[in-house]
């Protein structure tokens, strides 16, 4: 779809900047976005409404204490605006973000170079996510040993307030980022410079906004959302313990599965520097909302459901779920690592003998191993793993299945975006590659 707005001249973009002795014009570095994604400004406007409303809907209807229903009967809905503004929740939420920022600065971390930008420059990133994760785990263990499980009940008891705080936070930070992107010498994301305010605010305008050495996008991708997700899951296990005096095996399983997923992502923190989110997308409302609200609050539907409807799994169900999870995780990790090794350590024995297509751009595309089976076999394994997180909740309700349903759409859409990106980057080589590896995600079917 073509942008329907004409670009206004931006004097800042015409300024010449020096980089390694070379002179660039910002207008040529920051071309106007001519293709819209997510349905353009109308799609962006819809998502700006729907994502917060859905998160609020789940906070009301699946609060992990009273109920957990996807479609409550009319007249039975719990929506009330009484407890929406909860100052304790707002303070706790801001304290959580401040704590993560403080750890970023206080804990040591390896300094790693990112991919090459359009300016020819490479940014350096301080990576200490794993230390932040361990510190938070250690603190949680300390709190449990000292005070028991009750401090964690704050989260279930103030859940609606936390959700609302996260939504406010996303809109405010999204606005600040949008305003910041008009600062001098901001390198803009190729998809985020359409000139349409709503669309650019939604998709993210500036590619790598930073405050000193704090890269806001890289920081946000793994910490508030992922560590927050694990923390909220644990608090609903505490809620179940509070009500039942014990924790069911299904609750333990879901907590461990999702904690492991979080650990895996943070353990592989350097790999994030080559993901689409970091290399191509701007940092705007969409990613802020995902990292600070959508992921930590909606991905916890499994444990919220189990806190209301406890489930004891038998040995056969447990073995089947474990097998599905471990098998999926194995393929997910092996496929992602194979590409990472191939690109960053091609001499490694693990990737020797793999076939590849040499492209005109200089990059090589794997055509054997996991990447010869389907172009995104990693997405398939990620999805089957997500399904294994829902199964411990049984089949009594739809809420625990929201994540795999939504995730299927996300991955299909993401695959389409990645396909377009690669087609634009590799041209005829990508078409050749698609003829060799013909399945997109699910071999034999799609
Ligand atoms: P990928 O890790 O699949 O990376 C895609 C990129 O890899 C392409 O743009 C291309 O980049 C390169 N590439 C593609 N094909 C090949 C090939 N055959 N050989 C070598 N390189 C190739 O995508 P994502 O970054 O989207 O996902 C990373 C992981 O994160 C996935 O496992 C995904 O499931 C997961 N994820 C999870 C989410 C969640 O909410 N739980 C959300 C999003 C992702 P280049 O330009 O370098 O060639």
TrEMBL record:
It is a multi-pass membrane protein. PROSITE patterns: STEROL_REDUCT_1 (PS01017), STEROL_REDUCT_2 (PS01018). Pathway: Steroid biosynthesis. InterPro entries: ERG24_DHCR-like, Sterol_reductase_CS. The chain crosses the membrane at residues 42-60, 87-107, 128-147, 159-179, 313-332, 387-412. It is an enzyme of class 1 (oxidoreductase). One of its GO terms (biological process) is ergosterol biosynthetic process. One of its GO terms (molecular function) is Delta14-sterol reductase activity. The keyword Iron does not apply. Belongs to the ERG4/ERG24 family. This is Delta(14)-sterol reductase. It comes from Basidiobolus meristosporus CBS 931.73.
